[in-house]
Amino acid sequence: MQKWSAGSLVGVSTMTFEQPSTFEQPFRLADAARAGRHRGDVRRMQRQGLLRRMLHGVYVDASVPETPQLRAAAVSCVLPPGAVVCRATAAWLHGVPIDRLGGGDEVADVPVEVCSPIGTPASRRRGVRGYTAHLTDDDVTTVYGVPVTTTVRTAYDLARWCDRWDALALLDALVLHSVPLTDLVDGLPSLDGLPWAEQARELVAAVDPGAQSPMESFMRLRYLDAGFPRPQTQVAVRDDAGVPGFWLDCGLEEKKFGFVYDGGQIHGPEREKVDRLRRAWISERGWRVEVFDRFAVLAHTPEFERAIGDALELTPVVRSYDERRRTRLHTKRRAATTA
């Protein structure tokens, strides 16, 4: 594998504090200390809204807009020598929004994931989660000078190592933002012999970039696990003239059946009247729609499967929560450092 190091980055400018009054590039607390600024000064400026934390221990002027280049500069501040950015952090650098990554509402809450060559110690520092992996030159690219796994390798790593639901949400987002689905399908033979390749193949077959949130991906996978026919995403309900009036998260257009996720913050109490009118309009056109909230989608009990089974007049396959998410297997994978 080609040796990469943060010291050889091209196109990434990190804060040197030659002009300590400016914070337009990401910097570490150690950089601030060398410039005579104490940790407490930085924290005070963060509380005052003058700085924002981009990653653990990495800050930037709060007024600087986030761009792909700024993301790369922030990661370069904490990237260990010889390591390559991988998994969820790689997805972030490839353009996946933070709300698709999980682990927190801000990227600063998510550890930076990196991998080092086989035979070298996995990085273990605060704010960084390290692994070791065999990476060929074809597996590594650069994003504004930062070495990162390619979109295809990133997708496969997430599909193999994540909880099934989280993995599908990330794959949906990657295909939406940065990698053609055909590239993932064509590269599946490269997974032969790798750990948990079977899960990756299964999830690549279920990818649909039409999902607009992780919960929609979770809901669709739970539906598929029950053995129901594959749904379409963003299904149009049309008026008498054939013009789309509303869109459903998922559904079967030929059966005039749909199911949607109600996140509360979008369809909250203030919109109850609007929702009732919308659902009445959809019902008048012969559609049946099942609405599920967060608790129904994540529930351990099978009410979700039974509701859809009743609507479709099909008997669902009911799986346990652990079987659907493979949480126990995921716990073992999280403890592993070899990717």
Would you mind describing this structure in some detail?
The structure is a single chain. The protein is α+β, with helices and mostly antiparallel strands. 38% of the residues lie in helices and 18% in strands. It is built from 14 helices and 13 strands. It has helices spanning 29-34, 39-47, 68-78, 87-93, 151-161, 164-177, 181-186, 197-206, 214-225, 272-284, 294-298, 303-312, 321-325, 327-335; strands at 27-28, 51-55, 58-61, 84-85, 112-117, 124-125, 128-133, 140-143, 146-149, 232-238, 244-252, 257-261, 288-292. The chain has a four-stranded mixed beta sheet. A four-stranded mixed beta sheet has the order 10-11-12-13, sandwiched between helices. α6 crosses α9. The longest helix is centred in the middle third of the chain and has 14 residues, at 164-177. The chain is globular and about 70 Å long.
What tags apply to this protein structure?
globular; disordered N terminus
Draw up the topology in text.
Blueprint: E1 27-28, H1 29-34, H2 39-47, E2 51-55, E3 58-61, H3 68-78, E4 84-85, H4 87-93, E5 112-117, E6 124-125, E7 128-133, E8 140-143, E9 146-149, H5 151-161, H6 164-177, H7 181-186, H8 197-206, H9 214-225, E10 232-238, E11 244-252, E12 257-261, H10 272-284, E13 288-292, H11 294-298, H12 303-312, H13 321-325, H14 327-335
Parallel strand pairs: 5-7, 12-13
Antiparallel strand pairs: 1-3, 2-3, 4-5, 6-7, 8-9, 10-11, 11-12
Helix pairs in contact: 4-5, 5-6, 5-8, 6-8, 6-9
